[in-house]
Structure formats: C-alpha cells, structure tokens
Specification:
Helix content: over 70%
Number of strands: 0
Largest sheet: none
Oligomer: single chain
CATH topology: Helix Hairpins
Radius of gyration: 30 Å
Strand content: under 5%
C-alpha cells in the first residue's frame, strides 16, 4: 500500500474535510463533494491500518514460533545435561 499519500497525510486531509464540514458554511453540492472526499480518505486510512495490523500479526506469529523453537531446543539440551550429570559419581569440576 505504498501508492498515494501516507497514512499521516491521509489522516490530516480527512481532518481538514471534517473541519470544513463542521463549519457548516459550504453550499450543498460542495459539502457533498467534501463528504465524498472524506469518505475516500477514511477508507484509505482504514485500509492502511488493516494492512499494518495484518503485518504485525504475521511478523509477531513468526517471532513467537522462532522463540518457541529456541526454547524447546534449550529445554532438550538442559534435560540431556541433567541426565548426564545424574550419572556422575563425583563432581566433574573440583571446587576449591
């Protein structure tokens, strides 16, 4: 969604349209045109936010899966080390 104005630009333009309509001094045909422009800007902002949300969810899920795999691997390694240490009859490293 890189074509066209950014989210911030679209939001600022939408706020301008809302301000213009809120004043109540536009002729009906111009007010309708400003309203339609505002509606298009609202839809653009909504689409950008929905796209951003989807990317965050996808990237967050990928990060979660990677961390989960690292933790599972670490847990297996610790389990093996504990099992190996339980078979020792003396300390592997003398304590001075």
């Amino acid at each position: 969604m890189t074509d066209g104005p950014t989210f911030e630009e679209s939001l600022a333009a939408l706020e301008d349209r809302v301000d213009a309509l809120s004043r109540g001094d536009l002729p009906l045909d111009r007010a309708l045109a400003v309203f339609e422009e505002g509606l298009a800007l609202y839809r653009r902002c909504h689409a950008i936010l929905a796209d951003s949300e989807q990317r965050v969810i996808e990237e967050g899920l990928a990060l979660y899966r990677r961390c989960h795999a690292i933790l599972a691997d670490s847990e297996q390694r610790v389990t093996k080390l504990v099992a190996a240490a339980e078979g020792l009859s003396e300390e592997p490293f003398p304590i001075e």
